[in-house]
Structures are given as C-alpha cells and as structure tokens.
Amino acid sequence: MRIPANIKKYFWDTDPDNLKLRGDSYYIISRLLEYGNVKAIKWLLKIYPRRTIKITAKKSRNISGRTKAFWGNIRA
C-alpha cells in the first residue's frame, strides 16, 4: 500500500513515493498527527493500530505539546 495522493502534500521535505509504511511509520505518524487534516488522520487510523499512534505521539520530538496531550487521551 502506498500513501494516497491527497496525503502526499504533508511530506514536502521528502519523496512520499519512497516512504515505506512499516519502515517509516514513526516519521509518517508524527508528520500526520502534527499537520494532517481529518482525511489524513482517518487514513492513519486505518493503516496503524491506535496503540502505535499513541506511543509515537508520546515519544516523538516532532510533535507539539498540544498534539501530544490530545493523542495521549485517545484510547489505545
């Protein structure tokens, strides 16, 4: 599975076609949690388990405190 065309815009600093959903999950999740719109988040929730998203939100240095607090309240 690839990153959908409507979500590629969030990866402005890299070629989204070269991202691997499993190998680059930390980067993909962090970027979409911080900058993604509703469609991007819905896609993210289909691709990755909530537990993985919650752990990434907690550990990522690329996510703001506000975003971490929000995702910290989501049930895993």
From TrEMBL:
Pfam families: DUF6922
Residue span(s) of domain DUF6922: 8-54
Protein name: DUF6922 domain-containing protein
Lineage: Bacteria, Candidatus Portnoyibacteriota
